[in-house]
Amino acid sequence: MSIESNGKLTHKKMKFVPEIKFTKLFINGQFVDSISGKTFETIDPRTGDVITEVAQGIKEDVDLAVEAARDAFDNGPWPRLPGTQRRSILMKLADLIDENAEELAALDAIDGGKLFHDGKNIDIPSAAETFRYYAGAADKIHGDTLKMSREFQAYTLREPIGVVGHITPWNFPSMMFAMKVGPALAAGCTMIVKPAEQTPLSALYYAHLTKLAGIPDGVVNVVTGYGPIAGAAISSHMDIDKVSFTGSTEVGRLIMKDAAVSNLKQVSLELGGKSPIIIFDDADFDKAVDLALIGSLYNKGEICVAGSRVFVQEGIYDKFVKKLEEKVRSWVVGDPFDADSQQGPQVEKKQFEKILSYIEHGKREGATLLAGGKRFGEKGYYIEPTIFTDVKDDMIIAKEEIFGPVMSVLKFKTMDEVIRRANATKYGLAAGVITENLNIANTVSRSIRAGAIWINCYFAFDRDSPYGGYKMSGFGRDMGMDGLDKYLHVKSVATPIYNTPWL
Amino acid sequence: MAAESNGKSTKIPEIKFTKLFINGNFVDSVSGKTFETIDPRTEQVIARIAEGDKEDIDIAVKAARAAFDHGPWPRLPACERGRIMMKFADLIEENVEELAALDTIDAGKLFAFGKALEIPSAVSTLRYYAGAADKVHGNTLKMSREFQAYTLREPIGVAGIIIPWNFPSIMFFYKVSPALAAGCTMIVKPAEQTPLSALYFAHLAKLAGIPDGVLNVVTGFGPTAGAAISSHMDIDKVDFTGSTEVGRLVMQAAALSNLKSVSLELGGKSPLLIFDDADVDTAADLALFGGFYNKGEICVASSRIFVQEGIHDKIVEKLSEKAKNWVIGDPFDPSTRHGPQVDQNQFKKILGYIEHGKREGAHLLTGGKTHGEKGYYIEPTIFTNVEDHMMIAKDEIFGPVLSVMKFSTIEEAITRANATRYGLAAGIVTKDLNVANTVSRSIRAGVIWINCYTAFSPDCPYGGYKMSGFGRELGMEAMDKYLQVKAVVTPLVNSPWL
């Protein structure tokens, strides 16, 4: 059982609870009530209490936002500015984010149960850096001149795709906002952001900052509301040119279907995962244990690239399991404002119950419960860091994405065997490979069918490094220069040439 | 009225391949069923072809999956894939006459064009990608912390390729070539109207040394074999060219099954904008060619001709004159410019649109009726005084029907050209540099041809904006459809710099 934080989940430790300044929809540069006047509650997962009511956007609100975004795209300045000017404004936005990091981190802490200190020192600065990266890319969007086979001059232009709908998830509200909005803005697009209903607060704050930064009205709109209503209105809108979605595989399906049935808008999806971390006998032992723990417990396991299947080679298996048990004992679960906490509450009741039920499955299926296995404390959605060992590939806990602090440890013998077992999943988002051997690292990284392979590291995200899914983890890449492609169209322009020395 | 050809026919080829091609062998369909393929010149049955359905697709996918997961093709050095693809190209060249003849009797395509232009174009596409295979680059990345990172572009896996009937040979190679170069394996489902050349290409693929299971061809119908592809749980990518309606079904099926990646090349209502300073002869030629090439059965057809008012009447006069010399007749006759439409369905649909045009009050300049007693021949048809709201100006007709509209200013032309849900191509005829630059930047379409039309080339990508689809054919861009980006990251220790 993990040590309780000394805050004992009382209100004493809830410092920096921010005043909630923005609770309305942000459309065409203004904060407005929803047309229907409806609102919805956003809950604090530390206590289960309501933080505040937020405007609830429905189809009519999405329509208004699209009208504003369409006008801003077709007639407004944003897509027509030189890339350098979009750059200046995005840099200003990044500065404003840094200036308000504490307040933003506090919002994500009470809204999503995210660790305040990580938010303030890592997540929010990372969001700002993402805006800076794409700010610097805005004036470097290149096409090609082409080698025609007859006397023609031809080149490609990469043009902004138009009005984009972003449907963002609740697990990294700030980083996701930056990862989607950053490249779309750099490309010259206009957009409607529909943040997850669990975590609307920071998105509305960012909306306010975009206006302060000088992003023209209508370019960034934020419509808070529910997936099946506001989200569906986006995916089936006849005047949205592209929808980007990060979330569950089930919802990803609905979005792609809606896009097909409506106006065949382009789609990119970043979905679930059941990513393997593969630890070879020659691994740096202590580092391997740390990576395995972080892989499953970081952000309370609410991360699509969680290394939820830990394959350990038989030579070090017993030693490894023993060390895991030892280290997890000092893993601190507690109030996200407490600087000592490493794990806050799960985002909401539904997730909380789902994870606990997977834990019950694990017990029933006969895996060995090494640590945790139940809720933590009496109030709020806290779950103990949970580790199952002796897990078999066909167990539900080894196959399905749990999206919580639950690790499955499996034993393997040979490299060929573990490659086969690691790939035996419909997902393909990430994988970790822990070995000091160059050849194993090269072979395994080439062999795993996943979009990001981390060798002797995990969650090694970076602005210049694209990531995304293979197989049913989705398609399209976020981050890196590849991340811009989703928001650009390729246009070819060809003209005959006369009297030319060569082609 | 268009001139008639004297109706000479060349010898019709023997139909050698009529079965499904799966895992290196020609086999009957599991059900034993067959379907007819019709000659649009005579409305007669050419041959009966094996009719593939879900069970046959399943067998083909198993073969393609085994070939991808365990076979040599994705594991060969890319230059060896290139070598085999070059051999494949050589074999096609050696059989160009027979292949052109198959497309002529299957789709009504002009034999002389097929032999001199289209099949060679398919060949040069194949050679282009043969040469691209060993140039599939990733990037080394600039990390912000001490990490070494790079991207690999890996073959996506098993591809389902659904091709249309208007350019059976060219479309086959536009899709198959980048897929082969990337190291993928595939199942091709040719249109039911035009199965013959695809099966011949399958035979040549085997002779060229493409391993069993890498390239499979399952002939059959869209709602059965095609749907089985788009909803298959073990196909990693579907690439479709065809109508917008069917494109929707393909994308939905992909979403509901295994979320396979999709690319679509759909319809168009592409504008050709002729400015006052255009050369009248050139402009009229481009308009006719853009609208009537391949009997108008081309997705990038310049079906809306916008003519600036200063030059409008001269252009209309020229169009009328030139259309008279547009010879309609048997596609084997080398003097023919215009063969029969591909099938009865299309034939009726086009005639229906022509009637609409007449009823809506457009002026019928030339054509407007069928030609001959037998076969699906329609005269090259031009309507003038067409208004933007007319059905003939909005819907894709996919036949030899041009709509001519007058405009005043450049801004007006741009607005009206863009007022369509499609966005595939556009043509601009002007000598003015600034007009060319402004208009090419302003039209929302994937390929803009200035003082030319249908100027395709293997290195020049094309594809849709808006509801004309997404994904690009040709150019290095087309490889992207068949590749996935993988990032590989490792910490750096003791590095002089990042």
From TrEMBL, chain A:
<comment type="similarity">
    <text>Belongs to the aldehyde dehydrogenase family.</text>
</comment>
<feature type="domain" description="Aldehyde dehydrogenase">
    <location>
        <begin position="31"/>
        <end position="493"/>
    </location>
</feature>
<feature type="active site">
    <location>
        <position position="270"/>
    </location>
</feature>
<comment type="subunit">
    <text>Homotetramer.</text>
</comment>
<dbReference type="GO" id="GO:0004030">
    <property type="term" value="F:aldehyde dehydrogenase [NAD(P)+] activity"/>
</dbReference>
<dbReference type="InterPro" id="IPR016163">
    <property type="entry name" value="Ald_DH_C"/>
</dbReference>
<dbReference type="Pfam" id="PF00171">
    <property type="entry name" value="Aldedh"/>
</dbReference>
<keyword id="KW-0520">NAD</keyword>
<dbReference type="InterPro" id="IPR029510">
    <property type="entry name" value="Ald_DH_CS_GLU"/>
</dbReference>
<dbReference type="InterPro" id="IPR016161">
    <property type="entry name" value="Ald_DH/histidinol_DH"/>
</dbReference>
<dbReference type="InterPro" id="IPR015590">
    <property type="entry name" value="Aldehyde_DH_dom"/>
</dbReference>
<protein>
    <recommendedName>
        <fullName>Aldehyde dehydrogenase 1</fullName>
    </recommendedName>
</protein>
<dbReference type="InterPro" id="IPR016160">
    <property type="entry name" value="Ald_DH_CS_CYS"/>
</dbReference>
<keyword id="KW-0560">Oxidoreductase</keyword>
<dbReference type="InterPro" id="IPR016162">
    <property type="entry name" value="Ald_DH_N"/>
</dbReference>
UniProtKB/TrEMBL annotation, chain B:
<dbReference type="InterPro" id="IPR029510">
    <property type="entry name" value="Ald_DH_CS_GLU"/>
</dbReference>
<feature type="domain" description="Aldehyde dehydrogenase">
    <location>
        <begin position="26"/>
        <end position="488"/>
    </location>
</feature>
<dbReference type="Pfam" id="PF00171">
    <property type="entry name" value="Aldedh"/>
</dbReference>
<dbReference type="InterPro" id="IPR016161">
    <property type="entry name" value="Ald_DH/histidinol_DH"/>
</dbReference>
<keyword id="KW-0520">NAD</keyword>
<dbReference type="GO" id="GO:0004030">
    <property type="term" value="F:aldehyde dehydrogenase [NAD(P)+] activity"/>
</dbReference>
<dbReference type="InterPro" id="IPR016163">
    <property type="entry name" value="Ald_DH_C"/>
</dbReference>
<dbReference type="InterPro" id="IPR016160">
    <property type="entry name" value="Ald_DH_CS_CYS"/>
</dbReference>
<protein>
    <recommendedName>
        <fullName>Aldehyde dehydrogenase 1</fullName>
    </recommendedName>
</protein>
<dbReference type="InterPro" id="IPR016162">
    <property type="entry name" value="Ald_DH_N"/>
</dbReference>
<comment type="subunit">
    <text>Homotetramer.</text>
</comment>
<dbReference type="InterPro" id="IPR015590">
    <property type="entry name" value="Aldehyde_DH_dom"/>
</dbReference>
<keyword id="KW-0560">Oxidoreductase</keyword>
<comment type="similarity">
    <text>Belongs to the aldehyde dehydrogenase family.</text>
</comment>
